[in-house]
Amino acid sequence: MAAGYSRLYSLLAAALLGFACALACDSDSTSPKVERRLAIIETSGDPVRVIVADTVARDTRLPVTVTTYGDGCFSKGETEVAVNGLFALVEPYDYVEMRSGCVGVLRVFTHEASVQFAEAGTATVRVMGRRTWESGVLSVDFTVVVQ
């Protein structure tokens, strides 16, 4: 009977050790790392595509639509907006899986945001992005008359 208990305790100890490792060990170590990055807004042969009106009434939401690009490892992220006086900054972000073997297809994402100016005058809407992940930041300015 003592040998039966010894084997049972060994099995129980192995099960508990496996359970503890499952809790403590990184079970996602084989999953690709996903990073949130400032989006690609210009590709070779395709210029920056931003839709923003050139005139808006004061205290009215102004829609801003930005097209971003990626391959099979990309997915659409959020768009951040900051307004200070007559200056608005729009930053689209996308997610990229940091792995090899991504499907070599062009993925196109549409980021929609809105800005609102509290005072009349000539405003600037700046869209920030990248040409490639390796390139520096690219900014494109749009002038909007706020009435």
Task: Give a structural overview.
The protein is of the alpha+beta class and 147 residues long. It has 2 domains: 1-30; 33-146. 16% of the residues lie in helices and 50% in strands. The chain has 1 helix and 9 strands; from the N terminus they run αβββββββββ. Strands 1, 3, 5, 6, 8 and 9 form a 6-stranded mixed beta sheet that branches. A hairpin with a 2-residue loop joins strand 5 (74-84) and strand 6 (87-98). The protein starts with a helix and ends with a strand.
Short account of what is shown:
The chain contains 1 helix and 9 strands, in the order αβββββββββ. It is an alpha+beta fold and 147 residues long.
Number of helices: 1
| Separation of the first and last Cα atoms | 91 Å
Structural class: alpha+beta
Poorly predicted regions are 5-28
C-alpha geometry = elongated
Number of domains: 2
- Percent helix: 10-25%
Q: Which helices and strands occur, and which strands form pairs?
A:
Elements: H1 2-24, E1 33-38, E2 50-52, E3 55-56, E4 61-70, E5 74-84, E6 87-98, E7 107-116, E8 121-130, E9 137-146
Parallel strand pairs: 3-9, 6-8
Antiparallel strand pairs: 1-6, 2-4, 4-7, 5-6, 8-9
Characteristic terms for this protein:
9 strands, 2 domains, 147 residues, alpha+beta, single chain, six-stranded mixed beta sheet, three-stranded antiparallel beta sheet
